[in-house]
Amino acid sequence: MTGALWQPMPSETSTLCGMLPVPGIEGENNRRVWIARSTDDGITFERERPAWDRPTGACGCCKLDAFVDHDGTLYVLYRSAIDFVHRDIYLLISRDHGREFRGL
């Protein structure tokens, strides 16, 4: 996706993650965390997709942070934005190199 701030993640499979609006819908309450994976060290990437299906929105002024631990678990931390006034912090966790995430 163009105009995205992608953050590369060091892991066995290359993963990029970023916060983007849902295509065609304006407003930060319609933003989502997106993931793009690579299994060839970043030479090519799968098509980007939402990391999680829960409609939390994503704050437009707060950055997304992501990291991988020594076991290869991927963590993504971001601030939600629902109805322009409700804010919370979410942690997404993937233990399978970004294939699936669960949220806390």
Description:
The chain is an all-beta fold and 104 residues long. The protein has no helices and eight strands. The strands form two sheets. It has a four-stranded antiparallel sheet, with no helix packed on it. The radius of gyration is 13 Å and the shape is globular. It has one domain. The chain has strands at 7-9, 14-21, 31-38, 49-50, 65-68, 74-79, 89-94, 102-103.
Brief synopsis:
Helix content is 0%, strand content 38%.
Which descriptors apply to this entry?
104 residues, mainly beta, 4-stranded antiparallel β-sheet, disordered N terminus
Q: Give the number of domains.
A: 1
The total beta strand count reads: 8
* Biggest beta-sheet profile: 4 strands, antiparallel
**Global outline:** globular
Distance between the termini: 26 Å
Which structural class matches the secondary elements? mainly beta
Order of helices and strands: EEEEEEEE
Kindly state the percentage of residues in helix: under 10%
Q: DSSP strand (E) fraction?
A: 35-45%
Count, helices: 0
What do the pLDDT scores average to?
75
Order of adjacent strands in the largest pleated sheet: 1-2-3-4
- Which ranges are low-confidence, i.e. pLDDT below 50, for 5 or more consecutive residues? 1-6
Return Rg in Å. Answer: 13 Å
SSE blueprint and pairings:
Layout lengths: L6 E3 L4 E8 L9 E8 L10 E2 L14 E4 L5 E6 L9 E6 L7 E2 L1
Antiparallel strand pairs: 1-2, 2-3, 3-4, 5-6, 6-7, 7-8
